[in-house]
Amino acid sequence: MHSSDPCPKNYRGNCYGGFARAVHYIKQRKREGGLLNVYTGDFFQGHIFYTMFGWEMAADIVSQMPYDALALGNQEFYGGLEMLMPFMRRVGPVFVCTNLDFHRLNESLQKELAHLCPPSVILTITTVNSKHPVRVGIVGYTTPETARIAQTGAIVFYDEVQALSAEVRRLTQQRGVKVVVALGHSGLKRDLEIAHQVSGLDVVVGAHSHTLQWPGAWQPFRPDTPADPWDHASDVYPRIVTQASGRTVLVVHAFKHGKYMGGIDVGLNEQGEVRDWWPNITLLRANQGRDEAVVKVLGEYNHRLDVKRTEVIGQSLVTLEGRPDVCHHGECNLGNMFADAVLWANQRHEALHPRPVNIALINSGSMMNRILPLNITLDTLLETLPYQNTITIVTITGKTLLAVLEESVAHIENLAGTFLQVSGARVRYNIGLPRGKRVLSALVLCTNCSVPRFGPVQPHLVYEVAVTTYMAEGGDQFALLRDELLALRSMNMLDVDIMLEYLRIFSMVYPREEGRITVINESSLALSGSSRALTTLTLKIVSAVLCVVETLCVCRKAYTWQWDTLQMLCAV
Fold first, then answer.
1. How do the residues of the chain divide into helix, strand and coil, expressed in percent and rounded to 5?
2. Are strands 248-252 and 239-242 parallel, antiparallel or unpaired?
3. Which residue, 91, 108, 365, 415, has fewest beta-carbon neighbours within 10 Å?
4. Alpha carbon separation from 114 to 75, 101, 172, 454 (Å, rounded)
5. Phi and psi based region of residue 234 (left: phi greater than 0; alpha: psi -120 to 50; beta: remaining)
6. CA-to-CA distance for 43 and 49, rounded, in angstroms?
């Protein structure tokens, strides 16, 4: 069994997931025997609880789950070892760190991490249909990109394939292990490469890309519709990889936010190789039982959060306007500040990333209220940003970017939440034009330039854009963004996290409307060039006729022979 990102999320619609339901589900399955329960990282961030209480809350919750093995995600390193070490101590020695090297740390930390997070572990699992238990080797890896985007200190991150190959070889050749499961936090694309290249693997349980895989009912290589039809399955569960030796490797991902519990029963032959499999992904619904111990812990933190809701977190000299009747059809100052804060947070947390992100697009539906001057409390902020959305960086072409901007105003007449607030962009719309042709101009800040300046969006160029995860997944009518993106990575920071940090740093804010977005409504501009020329010519002819008619009307006494006709024209 496995899941991704345990933090429950406030979905627009039915409420799914939640750690209490996940723990209850796993404890029931554990009683049946033969279960290996693993998790592949990103315990930190993603919920207001973590924002306010940090590693302590994460450790108290994670400790309630009977995990057999865990990998670390990139998010665990954002607070440095000062946050990671107490978390690992509280949870205990269930972590696996195959591609991490701690030899540059002090001797005390080296010894402690060798105990808490060794390169591999061997677990003995009781199988369902066999009298003999199976020794399973567990290896774990974290994307080396973490060293560039997080506070990893003196920890060295090695290439996953090289580190895993050496450790799997040691397990199989020196320890006599026949079955090896890899827990990874590098994304599906990298997991597939690892499954192809690391000899001796049997199952790869992955995360980081937030991929929803789903079994194929009739076509084994195409995913069926997920249990929640609003979700989009981008790959089949499991993805089957055949190594050069003929060995079968199963690759599985289970989406994010603890919404689904991924499960797969694996049949092995005498050599410990995968023979067959039976996938089983469970959507954690509202009627799922909840673990009482987790409910109690969450209740205690909810009480602590209630106390903090009245604390002043910042101040504003102006009204921060985020109401739908304002922000759903034009630029608003809270939208400007929100989008600016997203770019600011990204640049702080990804300072070493090779491609800085200079563009943010925020769907106005993310905001639901306004904040009056002066003091801003946590409660007010949570009411204004109620959905606790995370931020995703998408890589898209300029053509897709322009299409996304078109979608921003495609439903503006309905005051839809699709209208985009922007940072690092200047957009001019004419909503009098047909849908799909309403963007008159779109300027964005350049990325690879010594002095950032605005320039037109080039359809053939590639851009990195910060958007809400809801948008990246196709929400608010942005399915084209989900379907056409070239790559993505998650900041795993809540919108509330970002705004809290922004307000604490800048304290007194006074955002304004700056002319980032211009919306006009001139239906005459819908005419084509040739149509405009023809219309202009027609207007000139009509004007000339009217001028002649006016003259004839004045001189009607001299031209009484056509008086009846002139009388009609003069009336017009």
1. 35, 25, 40
2. antiparallel
3. 108
4. 21, 10, 21, 50
5. alpha
6. 12
CB 461 within 8 A of CB 398: yes
> Is there a contact between 257 and 266 (Cβ–Cβ < 8 Å)?
no
Tell me how crowded residue 505 is: count the other CB atoms within 10 A of its CB: 12
The model's pLDDT over 107-116, given as tens digits with 9 standing for 90+, comes to 999 999 999 9
Q: Give the phi and the psi of residue 236 in degrees, each rounded to 5.
A: -85, 150
Report angle CA 178, 183, 189 to the nearest 5 degrees: 110
Confidence at 564, pLDDT banded by 50, 70, 90: very low
Number of residues that make up the chain: 572
The pair of three-digit structure tokens given for residue 226, joined into one six-digit string: 């997920």
Taking alpha carbons only, the member of 406, 399, 412, 397 closest to residue 440 is 406
pLDDT in tens, 145-176: 998 878 898 999 999 999 999 999 999 999 99
Angle at 469 between CA 315 and CA 460, to 5 degrees: 110
For a pLDDT cut of 90, what percent of the chain falls above it? Answer: 66
Average pLDDT over residues 33-52: 88
Q: With CA atoms as reference, report the closest residue to 50 among 568, 500, 571, 512.
A: 500
pLDDT tens string 294-317:
999 999 999 998 888 899 999 999
Q: How far is CA 78 from CA 58, 84, 326, 491, 527, in A?
A: 14, 9, 36, 11, 53
In three-state form (DSSP H/G/I as H, E/B as E, the rest C), the secondary structure along 483-520 is HHCCEEEEEEEEHHHHHHHHHHHHCEECCCCCCCEEEE
Cα 189 to Cα 15, 30, 99, 253, 399: the distances in Å are 30, 31, 18, 11, 24
Look up tokens 């010894």; give the residue. Answer: 111
Q: What CA–CA distance (Å, rounded) separates 547 from 542?
A: 8
Contact between 122 and 135 under an 8 Å Cβ cutoff? The reply is yes
Tell me the torsion sign for CA atoms 448, 454, 460, 466: positive
pLDDT for residue 181 is more than 90 = yes
Q: Is 405 helix (H, G, I), strand (E, B) or coil?
A: helix
* ∠ CA 128-132-137, rounded to 5°: 85
DSSP states along 10-61: --SSS----HHHHHHHHHHHHTTS----EE-S--SSSSHHHHHHHHHHHHHH
Q: Are 68 and 39 in contact (CB under 8 A)?
A: no
Rounded Cα–Cα distance for residues 176 and 64 (Å): 32
